[in-house]
From TrEMBL, chain A:
The keyword Transit peptide does not apply. The keyword Membrane applies. One of its GO terms (biological process) is transmembrane transport. This is ABC transporter permease. Belongs to the binding-protein-dependent transport system permease family. It comes from Mycetocola tolaasinivorans. It is found in: Cell membrane. CDD domains: TM_PBP2. InterPro entries: BPD_transp_1_N, MetI-like, MetI-like_sf. It is a multi-pass membrane protein. Pfam families: BPD_transp_1, BPD_transp_1_N. It comes from the Bacteria. One of its GO terms (cellular component) is plasma membrane.
UniProtKB/TrEMBL annotation, chain B:
GO terms for cellular component: ATP-binding cassette (ABC) transporter complex; periplasmic space. Residues 1-27 form the signal peptide. InterPro entries: Peptide/Ni-bd, SBP_5, SBP_5_dom. Keywords: Signal. GO terms for biological process: peptide transport. This is ABC transporter substrate-binding protein. It comes from the Bacteria. Residues 83-449 form the Solute-binding protein family domain. The keyword Signal applies.
Length: 316, 533
């Protein structure tokens, strides 16, 4: 068991490091000059006097852009390892401060979205398989592909239109309290829920035709027991993999959701950082995302053997 | 990540539109209500498109307006007449042909932390702006102070500001927000500290800042030194002014119609003609260089005058107006907008004229090739326009069609902001797109003189460059206005500027909100605003 866990932790660390390095290289290869962009966002680049060479050189040195590629990389990596991500070029404040003040907003959103997506996704999968009515079954089975193909911003605007503007049940914008969290979380949850429902629903349908189910039935297990205990448990493995991947993708979803619902959060921070080519901030957010992805997948990997003891044994 | 939710956007504007005819009046004033006068009290919430950036106007970019009411400047510019009027300075003298400005200051002005506004405060501010410039920030403020040699404190309420050469645009520059005053204690703070909010003498005080979400300003009850150009020179009528960041345009319109906010910055992607009469529309064109194509005159094709002039006459500005622009936006009739001081109407030189296009190009040795595009010496008349925002895509596509009908190819290249900056810097473009707000002839310096950012890279007409520099040292108002008129005509004749349409700032409010105003530039201000109770 221990080598399996160690190997998985090793993979997780590799993913974080690789994400960090690839982002650095990509950002470094971009054609534009981050100092130029910084001057532009503060109004000094375009629309006014050319910035003096000394001021430009001072800024370049301050952020280490005058160093060779590999030195910049090692410098930033070394600092990142000690938890110091430097200053944001665009906000001119320590990145740790920015993250600490915005991350809770996105974590709440992601947490609630995860809860919603699990309830909806698992609920639909179970209902679809449990229902004895053919029309209901086909509707429930065709819902997930439809929902998965809806763009998130469109879902968000639709929810806004009905639940905020028409019914006035939930606030349309801002970060204040639980009610403001419901619609954005739902927006983020629907595509994920659709994926879970699809994988889990189809998986269960397949498992229900497996020979071992006949044996379980023959032993006199109830319909609920057959579905929930036997088919569900076996269909859960692939769904769990998808769950791990979606958690990693939450930040990407937050960019759209936070924009539509005018929420402060990591998604909006990321969007602004990319627009302004704020290299240190983008790097940090990518690491955060990679860590979330790696941790979620590590957790999934560690849960696997509990569900299916064959996995840990095979991995030995 | 700029998605255009077309369907819902249309739904929302349809919800707004009942009669199809719009309420409110044009150019900065909504129709007057029948009530007796301003009501004191109330909280006004405005939905804005983006976060405000550094909350220090001396440092921040010209794109933001939410923080301009926190500081006051030496003088103000009347939005209707363009005249410079007293503000924190009660009078002034221009000496040494415009190299020295002596200001008499009001003696009753205080910063919101109790510090006194006096000659020392002026000196501290201007000196610290120069220091900020050396650290690579406060670029705009430093451009306004270019050539600054120092501030002399003559007595506690008299200062003399000197430059190494005459500087005709300084009086107007002194009215601009980047030269607004922060308290002496603020000038001693670091760039980062100042970015979180400054203390000024303005009608509003920064009360609460939640980055990327809201900025709350509270009215200063003892304020009584507003300029005569402001409708309310005393304390604001409202108690608080909150700017809420609502980036998505449909969500912003929804916030207004559902009553979550009292006013919004109108999304330029939506047609204002669809807003019904339940809402008031306040608008003000930017006083400055209109949205224009700046030809890169270092480009092999556009360094020649004929192709530039051909493009100038191949664009149909009336068609742009009828297809794309709502009632608040006018097509270009000069390099600058009609509210720009010294504006000259040059619409004759900008009218659509396909025959003239043929004449200009034929005379210069161009001939239509087999692909329908003009060519000369094997070079096709194909020009590139890199751009970032999807908001302008429809405009560019229309121009592309108009040029194509006249045998000119326009390659539209949509890129990220970072790529665009790189293109502009390296000169990899035929046309750059942009506008520039500044109600003073020094606006011409910025894009047409090599020492500045100079998108047109214009040094092809030395005499015009010289004229732009000459006006900037000419303190005689009448002859400077004449020079400005000549510059406008020159830029159009040589097609160094290809103006398209005016830029406009639009605020749409609930009917219960009154007297939203704009500065001479185009920034919305709320010192005179009041709300029905």
């Amino acid at each position: 068991m221990t080598p399996y866990i160690l190997r998985r932790i090793g993979y997780a660390l590799f993913v974080v490091w690789a994400a960090y390095t690839v982002t650095f290289v990509l950002l470094y290869l971009l054609p534009s000059d981050p100092v130029e962009l910084m001057l532009t966002t503060t109004g000094a680049g375009e629309s006014s006097l050319k910035v003096s060479d000394e001021a430009r050189a001072a800024l370049t040195a301050k952020y280490g852009f005058d160093q060779p590629f590999i030195i910049q990389y090692l410098m930033l990596l070394g600092r990142a390892l000690t938890g110091n991500f430097g200053d944001s070029l665009q906000h001119k404040t320590p990145i740790t401060e920015l993250i600490v003040s915005t991350a809770p907003q996105t974590l709440q959103l992601a947490g609630l979205a995860l809860l919603f997506s699990l309830i909806i996704g698992v609920g639909i999968a179970l209902l679809a398989n449990f229902s004895r009515s053919n029309p209901v079954r086909s509707i429930l089975f065709s819902l997930p592909p439809v929902a998965a193909s809806l763009p998130a911003f469109w879902i968000g605007l639709l929810l806004l239109q009905f639940f905020s503007y028409q019914l006035k049940w939930f606030p349309a914008l801002g970060n204040n309290g639980f009610p403001a969290l419901v619609l954005p979380a739902l927006t983020l949850a629907i595509p994920a829920a659709a994926t879970y429902a699809q994988i889990l629903g189809r998986g269960m349908a397949k498992e229900l035709h497996a020979p071992y189910i006949d044996i379980v039935r023959a032993k006199g297990a109830s319909r609920a027991r057959v579905q929930l205990v036997h088919a569900f448990r076996n269909a859960m493995l692939p769904a769990l993999t998808i769950l791990g991947i979606t958690i990693g993708g939450i930040l990407a979803g937050a960019v759209v959701t936070e924009t539509v619902f005018s929420r402060r959060g990591l998604g909006r921070l990321l969007q602004g950082a990319v627009d302004a080519q704020d290299i240190p901030l983008v790097q940090t957010l990518v690491i955060l995302s990679a860590v979330a992805f790696a941790v979620a997948n590590l957790a999934v990997d560690l849960i696997y053997p509990l569900l299916d003891p064959r996995i840990a044994r095979a991995g030995r | 990540m700029k998605k255009r939710p077309v369907l819902i956007g249309a739904l929302l504007t349809a919800a707004l539109a009942l009669s199809g005819c719009a309420g409110g009046a044009a150019a900065g004033e909504a129709e007057k209500p029948a009530t007796s006068g301003p009501v004191v009290g109330g909280n006004l919430t405005v939905g804005v498109v983006a976060w405000i950036g550094p909350l220090d106007r001396q440092q921040s970019s010209s794109r933001t307006f939410t923080n301009i009411q926190v500081t006051d400047s030496l003088v103000d510019q009347d939005p209707d007449t363009g005249k410079i009027v007293p503000w924190l300075a009660s009078s002034w003298e221009i000496e040494n042909d415009g190299a020295r400005y002596v200001f008499k200051l009001r003696d009753d002005v205080t910063f919101s932390n109790g510090e006194k506004f006096d000659a020392e405060a002026v000196k501290l501010n201007f000196d610290s702006i120069i220091e900020l410039g050396k650290q690579g920030t406060a670029g705009q403020a430093n451009a306004y102070l270019r050539g600054y040699t120092g501030t002399e404190v003559i007595d506690p309420y008299t200062v003399a500001i000197s430059f190494d050469a005459p500087k005709a645009g300084f009086l107007q520059a002194a009215s601009e927000a980047p030269l607004g005053f922060v308290s002496p204690s603020t000038t001693k703070q670091t760039i980062e500290e100042r970015a979180n909010g400054v203390i000024g003498t303005g009608p509003f005080v920064i009360k609460d800042v939640v980055k990327d979400e809201r900025l709350v300003l509270s009215a200063r009850k003892d304020y009584e030194w507003g300029s005569t150009a402001r409708k309310n020179a005393s304390a604001p009528h409202i108690d608080t002014l909150t700017y809420l960041v609502i980036p998505e345009s449909s969500a912003r319109i929804g916030a207004l119609t559902s009553g979550s906010v009292d006013a919004i910055q109108w999304p330029s992607s939506n047609n204002i003609d669809e807003v019904d009469s339940e809402y008031s529309v306040y608008s003000r064109p930017s006083a400055g260089i209109v949205y224009s194509l700046y030809p890169n005159t270092a480009d092999p094709i556009l360094s020649q005058e004929a192709p530039r002039r051909a493009v100038q006459r191949a664009i149909n500005r009336q068609e742009i107006k009828s297809v794309l622009l709502d009632k608040t936006i006018q097509p270009a009739t000069s390099v600058v907008s009609a509210v720009f001081p010294t504006y000259t109407d040059l619409s004759d030189k900008l009218s659509y004229n396909p025959d003239e296009v043929k004449k200009i190009l034929t005379a210069d040795g161009w001939a239509i090739g087999s692909d329908g595009i003009w060519a000369k010496n094997g070079q096709r008349l194909a020009l590139s326009l890199p751009f970032e925002s999807s908001e302008n895509k429809a405009l560019f596509e229309l121009i592309q069609q108009q040029l194509k009908a006249n045998g000119i190819e326009l390659d539209l290249r949509q890129v990220t902001g970072a790529e665009l900056q790189a293109s502009l810097k390296s000169g990899d473009y035929a046309f750059a797109f942009g506008n520039f707000t500044r109600p003073d002839p020094d606006a011409f310096l910025v894009n047409f003189v090599p020492e500045y950012s100079n998108l047109a890279r214009a040094d092809v007409t030395p005499e015009l460059t010289q004229l732009i520099k000459d006006q900037s040292v000419n303190v005689d108002a009448a002859s400077r206005a004449k020079q400005s008129a000549d510059i406008q005509a020159g830029l159009i004749d040589h097609a160094i500027s290809i103006p398209l349409h005016e830029a406009v700032s639009v605020i749409v409010t609930d009917k219960k909100v009154h007297d939203v105003a704009f500065t001479a530039q185009w920034w919305a201000i709320f010192g005179a605003a009041w709300i029905d109770q």
